[in-house]
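Re: your question from the hallway

Yes, I did run it. Sequences:
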Amino acid sequence: MANKAGPQRPNGTAQAKICQFKLVLLGESAVGKSSLVLRFVKGQFHEYQESTIGAAFLTQTVCLDDTTVKFEIWDTAGQERYHSLAPMYYRGAQAAIVVYDVTNQDTFGRAKTWVKELQRQASPNIVIALAGNKADLANKRCVEYEEAQAYAEENGLLFMETSAKTGTNVNEIFLAIAKKLPKSETIGGSGSGQGRRLVESDTTAKTSTSCCK
Amino acid sequence: MEDKQLNRYYGCLTFVAKQRSHDLCGSNGLPLTPNSIKILGRAQFLKTLEHPNLFTYIDVLRGKHERTVIVSEQYGTPLSEFTFENIIEILGLAKDVLKALSYLHSKDITHRSLSKKNIFFTNPQWKVFNYGLYYMTGNGTDVLFPIGDIKYFAPDVILQGPHEKTSGKADIWSLGIILAEILLDCDIFSNESLSTCIKDCLSFIDINDVFYDIAKKCNKCDILKKLPYEIILLVNKMLKTNPIDRPSARELLKEDIFALLTFEKVNNKKNQSSAYLPLDRNLLLELYHYWQLAGGDVYQELKKEGLIRTKPAVLSIPNLLLLEGTTFGQTVNDARIFEEQLIFLTINHLIERFRKLPKIYRYPDLNNSFIISKETSEMASLPLAIKERDIDYQFKRIQLFKKILKFLPSEHNKILRESRQDIPPFLRAIIWSKILEIDNDYLYQYTCIDKETPMPTDRQIEVDIPRCHQYNELLSSSAGHTKFKRILKAWVKRHPEYVYWQGLDSLCAPFLYLNFNNEARAYSCLKKFIDKYLHNFFLRDNSAVIKEYLAKFKHLIAFLDPLLATHLLKIGFSPELFAIPWFLTMFSHVFPIQKILNLWDSLLLGSASYPLFIGYSVLQQLRSVLLESGFNECILLFSDLPEIDIEKCVKDSMLFYESTPRSVTYRQNEVVDKNEKALFDGLDPPAVTIDIITNECCPRISNAELKVMVQNPILKTKLLIVDIRHPTLYNESNIPGSLNIHTVDLKLEKHIDNSLMHKSELSVLYNNKGKIITVIGDNDKKTSEFCSFLLKSGFPKVCSLNGGFRTLYMNGRPF
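Structure:
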């Protein structure tokens, strides 16, 4: 970890801890994974968000008390066929958001499969959040809040119903994940292959302006 | 274009579609398609209709606030202003209109608003106008105003209610009323109120002799009595109140009475001198295209005529607003009115303009196209944006391409050569299909594919289409979605060895956009395109194909820009992170449609490896930012790709392509031209595997291609061969002119620094920097390490000889 000249710490204190986490988004096609990321990172929403091919990557920083949490977000393609690529993306991930569409029961079923796969294959300490997206379409709801809530509790998942369109619970779910992630592992400490690269770029990275409180 | 009198113009109609509430959304959570877009999508089909008794639809435009503008061919005298000389002329009218209706009904289109205003005499025949309004508005459901004139409505139309589809039989009734009016020389229902009109119409039910009834009502029985019996019979057949008894247009045309017309020469006093020259659909569209290039703007014309009024928003505020939301005192909404007022777009000035051009441009001579090329060459080097908007230039190019297209396939090379200069947008769809060499029986092939049976990928296709290039009006229309789905399903069905990968939708979009009215051609272009550029990309397991493609992309970056390659490697920013959608969709997931069109104009002319160079050129436009950035900034940069100059990208990529040996970008998964096969000998497994390619950072050059370069005196000067074998071996045999560098004393994990500069071999290397450096060794690992060493030291154009020194001996002596 090179200590090149002065990176501005987001909260200005020299002691601030910086944690970097790899977060992966999984879920059926067209449930709104990319829209959630876009809302979180850029505060934008596109009605006709294009499909993701392969995967897309973004980063965003949030501030939690004395810690700066930098998310490296891996937004994956939803098509079942891209499933074979998924392990490459969730390998070494410290957090995952499994997304379903509250207006479509099938996508909830698919989300459960993703949770199972993560519990089996991903790193054992991975923080998994379940997001019931498109909560603004209340009149078309097919998956009840209580049902998903019960499932999340059973499996020890964070759970929120979100709306990338209105912004409801989008920052909240990322913050909740950030809170739950162990902060002892500072940069470079995790030793995972994915972390290394970020360390190098971290010191030269510009401070995110959309930093949350 | 013939040098005859072309006194004609286009007509414009405008109306406003029903507005949709913004809060509503469809079952998939996406906003509902605006009605004007639905109309636009449906109306595309109307543009394909062609019949001598119909005015051709030219264009449909969509303005702000759901405004729709229809541009149609339109000239001649409306029936309402025409005076008939005799019964034969009236029969001629009936026959022409029936022919038009018969054609329309065979296409399942009901006119619904047939009236005296919508039929025109265009010497020598009659043409029907505005026949697509009912069809394009989804049987009137997408607009607030009623379609058709109530006095021509059949009783069944009145009885069926507003939103049921009216059958073609209703048009026959309307024609019956029109004929009755002409024959009796009166306006039926002219002064009646709406309710009386409806009452009168319904009173005809149960009456057999409606024509007589009408005559009685209008006090015209005396005229009726003088009419020939056959005529009365004909009109009465058209006015059967029960649509089942009413004959169809086809049946009516078989009536004996129409045979009369063939014997009786229609005596036309207005004949010959004022005759209109019939123009076919393509020519009409072409003229309209020029009209637009010449600065024609339909909206301006409509504004000039006061058909589109811009009203300050403050004027549309209601006078009174109740707490529950009801409003009072607003002026009547434009959407409730359909003004059947036409405005005309004249094109005579254009024809005059083209007439002044030298004959060679109007009638290009392909055997003498040198003159054209020479004269347009000045223009040819101008930016594309200027060329595409220059009316004279486009005219010349279109005439030339039309001539070439006429003589295909024998002129295939000419079409490739001319396309390299540029492709006129007006003919792009057909030119692309010829470049891609789609089969002649493509229509039949497409028809044979089952596009309807449900299959497992349907769900994926259905969620992808409403997200694919939806800013484009055609692709976002309902008609567009239907066609889109059919083409994708056809492709999946037709290629059982492949599967639907997300991205196929993006690939299809440009072809569908260009061939919106020719699904079969869109499909065939897509098929040929994938066969050539994306061979094996759609295999169920395509990981090896993608891996190889990206490895070759990395090689190309290393070959052309060692500094960038080294930097990207250092920060760990590999093409896997951004380039999969680039190549899987040939950039159609990356750029908007208009840019893709310009990019593919050139891509289609290149080999299967050419897209790698396009990818490289895109990187080059971002080069300075990339070199200054770390991993995170790079990722952010690519998540929202900055504006890319496509024209520059195309020009650069061609230069790069021409200066790179072919085998450097050879891929095992590429379909290679037969003549080129020998050039890539030895680059396939088992000698070279995809793992080997992935692990090496510099490309390999084939033995055959190196031989070609060594033997060519010009190419040879651009080449430096570095032999890294032991000096003893080198002294035994070597390629004359090659440089021997023994790698033992070099620390290959580092790059060249000052401490090494004293070595004379290295200074030779530096003196030859920029040449193609081909490294020849006798051990793959060492060769690869040395290449990487050169790369890190900033040497461009480094490659290794595939197979090493021993391959030189494979066929006898070294060259």
